[in-house]
Amino acid sequence: MTRKYSIKRLVELYDEILSLPHKQEIARELRDEDDLFMLLVYSDMLGIPNPAFYYTLELYPYIIEKFHDWHLRMGMEKSPLDGIRCC
């Protein structure tokens, strides 16, 4: 029983050691993916044609809370959309 626990702990330690130098890279990649997803969802409202606009419309209530952080990160001080006021 103790040996199994020690092997599990060893594997966890190994994962931590491998992922430690890459945590910032992984976080940056996840943020970039989220930014791209937000751009795809709001692309039609920004003037970029989106053939899947009808389907992304359903996602607005779920991602509207992230919209403010997204447009600030994209360098827009105010919300670029008239229908969505977040600032």
Characteristic key phrases:
87 residues, mainly alpha
Provide an overview of this structure.
With 87 residues, this protein is mostly helical. It is 64% helix and 0% strand. The protein is elongated. This is DNA helicase. Pfam families: DUF7990. InterPro entries: CC_star_Cory, DUF7990. It comes from Halobacillus mangrovi.
Brief synopsis:
This protein has 87 residues and is mainly α. The protein is 64% helix and 0% strand.
Distance between the termini: 56 Å
Low-confidence stretches: none
Largest sheet: none
Query: How many structurally independent domains?
Result: 1
Number of strands: 0
Structural category: mainly alpha
Proportion in helices: 55-70%
What is the beta-strand fraction? Answer: under 5%
Judging from the principal axes of the Cα atoms, what is the shape? elongated
**C-alpha Rg, in Å?**
20 Å
Number of helical segments with 4 or more residues: 4
**Helices and strands, in N-to-C order?**
HHHH
| pLDDT averaged over residues | 83
What is the strand and helix layout of this fold?
Layout lengths: L1 H18 L3 H20 L10 H4 L3 H14 L14
